[in-house]
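Mods, move this if it's the wrong board.
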Amino acid sequence: MEEKLSRLVERLKGAFGDRLVAVVLYGSGGTEDWNKDSSDLNVLCVLSRITPAELGLAEPILHWWQKDGNPPPLLLTADEVPASTDCFPMEFHDMQRHRRVLYGSDVIASISVENKYYRAQLEHELRAKQLRLRQRAAEVLSQPDRLRRLMTDSVSTFCVLGRHALILGGQPSYWKKQEVVAALANAIGSPLNGIDEILALRTSGKRLTDGETVPLLERYLVDITALVRFVDAFGG
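Not the wrong board. Structure tokens:
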């Protein structure tokens, strides 16, 4: 990981020179929960200006970075960082709590994230992902392998959203998925057995029988509904 990040920073410095204000690693890459096989390296790249010229210089770097399996860096100007917290409160909240400044100034240190925007984005993301899961499940309900893959692929997103729900509710911030789910179950007041089982499936690689897949989906959907209600109870 360190070698990849070092190479990225050197390429960004070489391309942008004094237009490069900061390079910040955020998300799981800044925590002990980072896994080289399944975790992304999320990077914020802050420039003094962004015009087609800068985008052209960024193109080969982004292609190289994405080819290695990473999401493209976020490109923002220094002025856009504090102005964007109301649009991307979850992302900036993560940056505030877990970040590493790889180059330049700490542009995150002085920003503020208002809870009203934080809650609105969290509920929107939760309900959108809930609806999307239902749609996808309806498409593959008769195909146990694809349904199992849908559940194991989607559970990480709900754990991320659950972590933000805990933070919004004044709970400690966790990064390990099992810790997030245990804390959520305690905060909600009921076990989240479906999510627990799917996380265990991801770890073990166990193959469900055809008769086990739909009942697990049912438990999973119940857990997600409980999470949505938990966030909805915070009010507007």
